[in-house]
What we know:
Helix 2 (41-52) links the parallel strand 2 and strand 3 (62-65). The chain has 9 helices and 10 strands. The strands form 2 sheets. The chain has a 7-stranded parallel β-sheet, sandwiched between helices. Strands 4-8-7 form a 3-stranded antiparallel β-sheet. The relative contact order is 0.18. It has helices at residues 9-26, 41-52, 80-92, 109-122, 159-164, 166-169, 183-187, 202-210, 218-221, and strands at 2-6, 31-34, 62-65, 67-69, 99-100, 126-132, 152-156, 177-181, 191-196, 228-233. The chain has one domain (2-233): Rossmann fold (3-Layer(aba) Sandwich). It has 244 residues and is α/β, with parallel strands linked by helices. Helix 1 crosses helix 2 and helix 2 (41-52) runs parallel beside helix 3 (80-92). The structure holds fructose -6-phosphate. The site of fructose -6-phosphate has 14 residues, from loops.
Amino acid sequence: MNIITASNYNTLSQIAAQKAADYIRGNPNSLVCFAAGDTPLGMFKELIAMQNRGEIDLSSIWYVGLDEWVGLGSNDVGSCVKVMTDNFYEPAGISKERIRLFDGLALDINRECREMENWIVFHGGIGLTLLGVGMNGHIGFNEPGTPEQEGCFTVELDNTTKIVSAKYFGKELPVSMGVTIGWKTLMKADRVVIMACGEKKASIMEAVIEGEVSLEIPGSLFRQHPNVVFLLDDGAATRLSVEL
Ligand code: F6R
């Protein structure tokens, strides 16, 4: 297990972008899965700046969304599709044919899950995934104790996730379900980067990195991945006792 700490969020974002760029340069036709949420926003800016400087080409990659709030679509503030489109896909100039994101408004959400699974299989599985960690240790919407793990599935959101969700919407929305790629499918990725920033994540990152490997803390399961990097800023690393 590889743990990297960065002195601040900007440095963390630069390191994450560098890791993504290294993978993309070496695997220019691979499938990449980025989490939405606040944590990767700085990394998206870095990747776009790198492309603008001619240091990387993001257009040859295939993309798959990690998760979505069921009931929210591309026009809804805070939906994963909107966050990703506004902060990455549009400014990076990625063509729509290269992107497959969950449609939280799909009438048949099970079919939506199957189509996402087919997209992943068709592109040879996920090459690189860059993930954030929820305040309850969730990865994507693999919530604590979620029994399903493989492929894509819908899930009743954990209470912590529902409360924290207000930060994306500017108000409390009655979201209760999520749809996500399961952790076992994510575990098959060639390379996994898990990011966390801020002191508010210190306790959960202690559990993820130093606690028991358990379905109750989905992030901890990724310690078993052969090619995982945990990338934390100083705040999120405050409670770690491992020597860094
Ligand atoms: C978002 C996602 C979530 C977030 C996690 C951390 O697509 O999959 O698991 O990565 O909740 O969110 P932030 O980065 O906002 O702290």
